[in-house]
Amino acid sequence: MLLSPLQARKLVSHCLQEKYALLAVNADSPAAIYDCLAAAKELDAAIVIQTSLWQLEGISFGADDALRGLAVYYAHINLLANSKEFHQVPVVLHTDHIRGPRTREILTEAIKGYAFQVDDMLVRLSPTTVSLDASKLTAEQNIEMLCSLIEAAESVGRPLTLEMEAGLDVGLTTPEEIESLIMGVECRHSGYVALFAPGLGNRHGFSKEGYPGFRPENISSTASLLERLTGRKIGIVLHGSSGLSEEQIREAVAHGLTKLNWSTDGLILRSSAAQEYYRSRQDQLVPGHAEFKVSAMDNGVGRFVSRRFVPKIKDLIELLEGAGRAGSFMAAL
Prior knowledge:
alpha/beta
Protein backbone atom coordinates (compact mmCIF):
# COMPACT_ATOMS: atom_id res chain seq x y z
CA MET A 1 0.00 0.00 0.00
CA LEU A 2 1.43 3.32 -1.03
CA LEU A 3 1.22 5.54 2.03
CA SER A 4 0.03 9.13 2.08
CA PRO A 5 2.19 11.93 3.57
CA LEU A 6 0.18 11.85 6.81
CA GLN A 7 0.40 8.05 7.03
CA ALA A 8 4.17 8.40 6.61
CA ARG A 9 4.30 10.48 9.80
CA LYS A 10 2.50 7.65 11.59
CA LEU A 11 5.07 5.21 10.22
CA VAL A 12 7.91 7.35 11.59
CA SER A 13 6.16 7.38 14.98
CA HIS A 14 5.79 3.60 14.80
CA CYS A 15 9.54 3.24 14.13
CA LEU A 16 10.37 5.42 17.11
CA GLN A 17 7.97 3.59 19.39
CA GLU A 18 8.96 0.08 18.32
CA LYS A 19 12.70 0.89 17.96
CA TYR A 20 13.43 -0.09 14.38
CA ALA A 21 14.56 1.75 11.25
CA LEU A 22 13.24 1.88 7.70
CA LEU A 23 15.39 0.77 4.81
CA ALA A 24 15.29 3.39 2.03
CA VAL A 25 16.55 2.12 -1.33
CA ASN A 26 17.33 4.28 -4.33
CA ALA A 27 15.62 2.12 -6.95
CA ASP A 28 17.20 2.67 -10.34
CA SER A 29 14.79 0.66 -12.48
CA PRO A 30 11.34 -0.93 -12.45
CA ALA A 31 13.01 -4.26 -11.70
CA ALA A 32 14.73 -2.80 -8.63
CA ILE A 33 11.42 -1.40 -7.39
CA TYR A 34 9.77 -4.80 -7.71
CA ASP A 35 12.66 -6.53 -5.93
CA CYS A 36 12.41 -4.13 -2.98
CA LEU A 37 8.69 -4.74 -2.60
CA ALA A 38 9.17 -8.50 -2.90
CA ALA A 39 11.81 -8.49 -0.15
CA ALA A 40 9.64 -6.38 2.16
CA LYS A 41 6.64 -8.64 1.58
CA GLU A 42 8.64 -11.75 2.49
CA LEU A 43 9.62 -10.19 5.81
CA ASP A 44 6.33 -8.42 6.64
CA ALA A 45 8.22 -5.12 6.59
CA ALA A 46 7.72 -1.55 5.47
CA ILE A 47 10.00 -0.19 2.74
CA VAL A 48 11.00 3.24 1.42
CA ILE A 49 11.59 3.55 -2.33
CA GLN A 50 13.62 6.63 -3.21
CA THR A 51 14.07 8.39 -6.50
CA SER A 52 16.78 10.93 -7.21
CA LEU A 53 17.16 13.26 -10.17
CA TRP A 54 19.28 10.72 -12.06
CA GLN A 55 16.51 8.12 -11.76
CA LEU A 56 13.84 10.58 -12.90
CA GLU A 57 15.95 11.54 -15.92
CA GLY A 58 17.08 7.95 -16.59
CA ILE A 59 16.00 5.94 -19.62
CA SER A 60 13.74 3.68 -17.50
CA PHE A 61 11.56 6.60 -16.43
CA GLY A 62 11.84 10.14 -17.82
CA ALA A 63 14.48 9.75 -20.56
CA ASP A 64 16.03 13.18 -19.77
CA ASP A 65 12.68 14.73 -18.78
CA ALA A 66 12.49 14.82 -14.97
CA LEU A 67 8.83 15.82 -14.88
CA ARG A 68 7.88 12.96 -17.18
CA GLY A 69 10.06 10.77 -14.99
CA LEU A 70 8.01 11.80 -11.97
CA ALA A 71 4.82 10.72 -13.71
CA VAL A 72 6.21 7.36 -14.81
CA TYR A 73 7.83 6.64 -11.44
CA TYR A 74 4.65 7.58 -9.52
CA ALA A 75 2.40 5.57 -11.80
CA HIS A 76 4.63 2.50 -11.68
CA ILE A 77 5.05 2.38 -7.93
CA ASN A 78 1.41 3.28 -7.31
CA LEU A 79 0.28 0.37 -9.48
CA LEU A 80 2.60 -2.10 -7.76
CA ALA A 81 2.20 -0.92 -4.17
CA ASN A 82 -1.60 -0.91 -4.36
CA SER A 83 -1.84 -4.24 -6.18
CA LYS A 84 -3.20 -7.36 -4.48
CA GLU A 85 0.35 -8.74 -4.31
CA PHE A 86 1.77 -5.86 -2.24
CA HIS A 87 -1.27 -4.25 -0.65
CA GLN A 88 -0.15 -5.25 2.86
CA VAL A 89 3.35 -3.79 2.43
CA PRO A 90 3.58 -0.18 3.74
CA VAL A 91 5.43 1.65 0.96
CA VAL A 92 6.86 5.17 1.13
CA LEU A 93 7.76 6.94 -2.11
CA HIS A 94 10.46 9.49 -1.29
CA THR A 95 12.21 12.14 -3.40
CA ASP A 96 15.94 12.09 -2.69
CA HIS A 97 18.85 14.09 -4.17
CA ILE A 98 16.82 16.50 -6.24
CA ARG A 99 19.26 19.32 -6.92
CA GLY A 100 20.30 21.96 -9.39
CA PRO A 101 18.51 24.94 -10.96
CA ARG A 102 15.24 23.05 -11.48
CA THR A 103 14.93 21.80 -7.88
CA ARG A 104 12.13 24.16 -6.93
CA GLU A 105 10.20 23.50 -10.16
CA ILE A 106 10.49 19.71 -9.97
CA LEU A 107 9.56 19.42 -6.30
CA THR A 108 6.74 21.94 -6.55
CA GLU A 109 5.22 19.88 -9.37
CA ALA A 110 5.75 16.73 -7.31
CA ILE A 111 4.01 18.19 -4.27
CA LYS A 112 1.07 19.63 -6.19
CA GLY A 113 0.64 16.21 -7.78
CA TYR A 114 1.09 14.97 -11.31
CA ALA A 115 -2.29 14.78 -13.04
CA PHE A 116 -3.47 11.58 -14.75
CA GLN A 117 -6.71 11.31 -16.68
CA VAL A 118 -8.46 8.03 -15.83
CA ASP A 119 -11.69 7.73 -17.84
CA ASP A 120 -13.62 10.85 -16.78
CA MET A 121 -11.70 11.36 -13.52
CA LEU A 122 -8.57 13.44 -12.89
CA VAL A 123 -6.19 11.67 -10.50
CA ARG A 124 -3.20 13.39 -8.92
CA LEU A 125 -0.24 11.34 -7.68
CA SER A 126 2.44 12.81 -5.43
CA PRO A 127 5.27 11.45 -3.28
CA THR A 128 4.80 10.26 0.28
CA THR A 129 7.76 12.18 1.68
CA VAL A 130 9.97 14.87 0.16
CA SER A 131 13.57 15.96 0.61
CA LEU A 132 16.06 17.88 -1.48
CA ASP A 133 19.81 17.73 -1.83
CA ALA A 134 21.13 20.58 0.31
CA SER A 135 24.82 19.87 -0.27
CA LYS A 136 25.27 22.93 -2.51
CA LEU A 137 22.91 25.21 -0.58
CA THR A 138 23.63 27.60 2.25
CA ALA A 139 21.61 27.11 5.43
CA GLU A 140 19.46 30.08 4.45
CA GLN A 141 18.82 28.67 0.97
CA ASN A 142 17.96 25.28 2.47
CA ILE A 143 15.42 26.84 4.83
CA GLU A 144 13.95 29.07 2.14
CA MET A 145 13.56 26.20 -0.32
CA LEU A 146 11.73 24.00 2.19
CA CYS A 147 9.45 26.86 3.23
CA SER A 148 8.58 27.53 -0.41
CA LEU A 149 7.62 23.86 -0.86
CA ILE A 150 5.40 24.01 2.23
CA GLU A 151 3.72 27.13 0.86
CA ALA A 152 3.17 25.37 -2.48
CA ALA A 153 1.46 22.47 -0.68
CA GLU A 154 -0.67 24.83 1.39
CA SER A 155 -1.71 26.80 -1.71
CA VAL A 156 -3.39 23.71 -3.18
CA GLY A 157 -4.48 22.13 0.10
CA ARG A 158 -2.32 19.02 -0.21
CA PRO A 159 -0.57 17.35 2.75
CA LEU A 160 3.23 17.33 2.90
CA THR A 161 5.79 15.46 5.00
CA LEU A 162 9.41 16.63 4.78
CA GLU A 163 12.84 15.23 5.44
CA MET A 164 15.33 18.01 6.11
CA GLU A 165 18.97 17.50 5.15
CA ALA A 166 21.87 19.28 6.81
CA GLY A 167 25.40 19.65 5.42
CA LEU A 168 26.08 15.99 5.99
CA ASP A 169 29.14 15.58 3.75
CA VAL A 170 31.30 17.94 5.83
CA GLY A 171 31.51 16.07 9.12
CA LEU A 172 29.31 16.44 12.16
CA THR A 173 26.43 18.91 12.17
CA THR A 174 26.76 21.00 15.33
CA PRO A 175 23.87 21.58 17.75
CA GLU A 176 23.91 25.25 16.76
CA GLU A 177 23.57 24.36 13.08
CA ILE A 178 20.77 21.91 13.84
CA GLU A 179 18.86 24.52 15.84
CA SER A 180 19.29 27.14 13.12
CA LEU A 181 18.04 24.79 10.40
CA ILE A 182 15.05 23.23 12.13
CA MET A 183 13.83 26.42 13.75
CA GLY A 184 14.28 28.33 10.49
CA VAL A 185 11.49 26.16 9.09
CA GLU A 186 9.58 25.48 12.31
CA CYS A 187 9.08 29.13 13.22
CA ARG A 188 7.39 29.73 9.87
CA HIS A 189 5.64 26.41 9.26
CA SER A 190 5.41 24.13 12.27
CA GLY A 191 4.90 20.38 12.04
CA TYR A 192 5.97 19.56 8.48
CA VAL A 193 9.46 18.15 9.16
CA ALA A 194 9.16 14.53 10.31
CA LEU A 195 12.70 13.38 9.43
CA PHE A 196 16.09 15.05 9.81
CA ALA A 197 19.36 14.00 8.16
CA PRO A 198 22.36 15.54 9.97
CA GLY A 199 26.05 15.01 9.36
CA LEU A 200 27.02 12.09 11.59
CA GLY A 201 30.63 11.58 10.58
CA ASN A 202 29.76 9.72 7.38
CA ARG A 203 29.14 10.96 3.83
CA HIS A 204 27.42 10.07 0.59
CA GLY A 205 29.04 7.49 -1.66
CA PHE A 206 31.47 4.70 -0.81
CA SER A 207 34.34 4.87 1.65
CA LYS A 208 36.97 2.10 1.52
CA GLU A 209 38.40 3.23 4.83
CA GLY A 210 34.99 3.26 6.50
CA TYR A 211 33.88 6.13 8.70
CA PRO A 212 36.12 6.39 11.76
CA GLY A 213 34.41 9.65 12.75
CA PHE A 214 30.95 8.08 12.88
CA ARG A 215 29.44 8.13 16.37
CA PRO A 216 26.04 6.38 16.81
CA GLU A 217 25.43 8.29 20.05
CA ASN A 218 25.13 11.47 17.97
CA ILE A 219 21.83 10.05 16.68
CA SER A 220 20.21 9.98 20.11
CA SER A 221 21.62 13.37 21.09
CA THR A 222 20.34 14.95 17.87
CA ALA A 223 16.91 13.37 18.37
CA SER A 224 16.76 14.73 21.92
CA LEU A 225 17.75 18.20 20.74
CA LEU A 226 15.11 18.21 18.00
CA GLU A 227 12.40 17.11 20.44
CA ARG A 228 13.43 19.81 22.88
CA LEU A 229 13.32 22.47 20.16
CA THR A 230 10.08 21.43 18.44
CA GLY A 231 8.13 19.68 21.18
CA ARG A 232 7.73 16.49 19.09
CA LYS A 233 9.77 13.47 18.10
CA ILE A 234 11.55 13.71 14.73
CA GLY A 235 13.17 10.70 13.11
CA ILE A 236 16.90 10.70 12.35
CA VAL A 237 18.07 9.64 8.88
CA LEU A 238 21.45 8.21 8.00
CA HIS A 239 22.58 9.22 4.50
CA GLY A 240 25.70 7.55 3.18
CA SER A 241 25.64 4.06 4.70
CA SER A 242 28.01 2.39 2.20
CA GLY A 243 31.18 1.70 4.16
CA LEU A 244 29.53 1.35 7.58
CA SER A 245 29.93 -2.01 9.30
CA GLU A 246 26.99 -4.12 10.42
CA GLU A 247 27.94 -3.39 14.02
CA GLN A 248 27.87 0.36 13.39
CA ILE A 249 24.41 0.04 11.85
CA ARG A 250 23.15 -2.05 14.78
CA GLU A 251 24.41 0.59 17.18
CA ALA A 252 22.76 3.30 15.11
CA VAL A 253 19.40 1.51 15.41
CA ALA A 254 19.96 1.06 19.15
CA HIS A 255 20.49 4.83 19.41
CA GLY A 256 17.21 5.60 17.66
CA LEU A 257 17.96 5.64 13.92
CA THR A 258 14.70 5.90 11.96
CA LYS A 259 15.74 5.60 8.31
CA LEU A 260 18.82 4.27 6.52
CA ASN A 261 19.47 5.37 2.93
CA TRP A 262 21.10 2.73 0.71
CA SER A 263 22.26 3.33 -2.86
CA THR A 264 25.92 2.84 -3.78
CA ASP A 265 26.22 -0.75 -2.52
CA GLY A 266 22.99 -1.60 -4.32
CA LEU A 267 24.29 -0.24 -7.62
CA ILE A 268 27.50 -2.24 -7.20
CA LEU A 269 25.55 -5.41 -6.42
CA ARG A 270 23.12 -5.13 -9.34
CA SER A 271 25.75 -4.14 -11.92
CA SER A 272 28.15 -6.89 -10.77
CA ALA A 273 25.39 -9.49 -10.97
CA ALA A 274 24.43 -8.35 -14.48
CA GLN A 275 28.08 -8.47 -15.53
CA GLU A 276 28.35 -12.03 -14.24
CA TYR A 277 25.14 -13.03 -16.01
CA TYR A 278 26.27 -11.80 -19.43
CA ARG A 279 29.80 -13.12 -19.02
CA SER A 280 28.55 -16.60 -18.12
CA ARG A 281 26.18 -16.66 -21.13
CA GLN A 282 28.52 -15.19 -23.70
CA ASP A 283 28.31 -18.24 -25.95
CA GLN A 284 24.49 -18.17 -25.88
CA LEU A 285 24.18 -14.52 -26.92
CA VAL A 286 24.61 -15.34 -30.59
CA PRO A 287 21.69 -15.30 -33.04
CA GLY A 288 20.84 -18.84 -33.99
CA HIS A 289 21.81 -20.37 -30.64
CA ALA A 290 18.97 -22.42 -29.13
CA GLU A 291 19.08 -20.35 -25.92
CA PHE A 292 19.57 -16.95 -27.55
CA LYS A 293 16.15 -15.42 -26.85
CA VAL A 294 15.91 -16.78 -23.31
CA SER A 295 19.35 -15.40 -22.50
CA ALA A 296 19.00 -12.09 -24.33
CA MET A 297 15.60 -10.99 -23.02
CA ASP A 298 15.44 -8.65 -20.01
CA ASN A 299 13.67 -11.33 -18.00
CA GLY A 300 16.79 -13.48 -17.96
CA VAL A 301 19.18 -10.93 -16.52
CA GLY A 302 16.41 -9.43 -14.38
CA ARG A 303 15.68 -12.67 -12.56
CA PHE A 304 19.40 -13.44 -12.18
CA VAL A 305 20.02 -10.02 -10.58
CA SER A 306 16.93 -10.40 -8.41
CA ARG A 307 18.25 -13.62 -6.90
CA ARG A 308 21.27 -11.63 -5.66
CA PHE A 309 19.51 -8.40 -4.77
CA VAL A 310 16.44 -9.57 -2.84
CA PRO A 311 18.43 -11.52 -0.19
CA LYS A 312 20.60 -8.45 0.43
CA ILE A 313 17.54 -6.24 0.90
CA LYS A 314 16.15 -8.80 3.34
CA ASP A 315 19.45 -8.88 5.26
CA LEU A 316 19.38 -5.10 5.62
CA ILE A 317 15.75 -5.03 6.76
CA GLU A 318 16.56 -7.59 9.44
CA LEU A 319 19.69 -5.67 10.46
CA LEU A 320 17.48 -2.61 10.98
CA GLU A 321 15.05 -4.67 13.11
CA GLY A 322 12.34 -4.00 10.54
CA ALA A 323 11.14 -7.55 9.91
CA GLY A 324 7.65 -8.38 11.17
CA ARG A 325 6.63 -4.74 11.72
CA ALA A 326 4.27 -4.15 8.80
CA GLY A 327 1.30 -6.02 10.22
CA SER A 328 1.14 -4.11 13.48
CA PHE A 329 1.58 -0.79 11.70
CA MET A 330 -1.15 -1.53 9.15
CA ALA A 331 -3.47 -2.68 11.90
CA ALA A 332 -2.95 0.63 13.72
CA LEU A 333 -3.74 2.80 10.67
